[in-house]
Amino acid sequence: PLSTADLEEHFADQIHLVDSITWDNREEAVLARRQRRLGELVLKEERLIGEANPAAVTAALIEGIRQLGLHILPWSREAEEFRQRIAFLRRLDGKACWPDLSDPALIAGLEDWLAPFCDGASRRGHLARLDLLAILRAQLDWTCAKALDELAPTHVDVPSGSRVRIDYGGEEPVLAVRLQEMFGLATTPRIARGTVPLLLHLLSPARRPVQVTRDLASFWAHAYKQVKADLKGQYPKHHWPDDPMQAEPTARAKPRK
Predict the structure, then answer these.
(1) Eight-class DSSP state of 14
(2) pLDDT-derived band of residue 198, with 50, 70 and 90 as boundaries?
């Protein structure tokens, strides 16, 4: 056996200090330690408090996020929808300035898009304070940031006066709206400067889909009569006019008198 004193005496020139800053999956935190080593043999170890290199801490945190996955980040509904809107615009015009915000691209580029916002963070719990929507918006240049709301708005104003959210989660944007709120509208709402019609999910008063269409005018002319008959039996207290183009749109059971 060799004592520490023996090692210090005979191998002093080979003993060195090493700062070890790594992600620990068990603690879900960056562990910063200063080790006194002889080769790979750790003679002494102590935690670094306030002395760890900030860049090294951030690098270790990023590696922890990469290991655990993007789901550990504080995704808000707005941040998820932002990604979906950008994905829609990339499908529409992949040659434009829209960044790739898919899971694989975000994981591969954590050092570029996320690391600059992680100053002072060293454990999973610290990630909760990140504003992912603002961080993702920072990936757009000025031109794209200005065009985003025009090309892929978050909501559409419908004839009843309601402001209805657009769902970009599928292959094409969907507007789910109660049928009565669309009375009087002859044409399907469009986005992307009028080039993309929304896929309408027309809903019953209970918000159940009764018709899916991209052609609102055709629905009023052909399918509405049968749909009206079905809904009138289920919801007799609601207003089901014979001529939907002349009826007042409403978000209520019946139009205001």
Answers:
(1) G
(2) very high
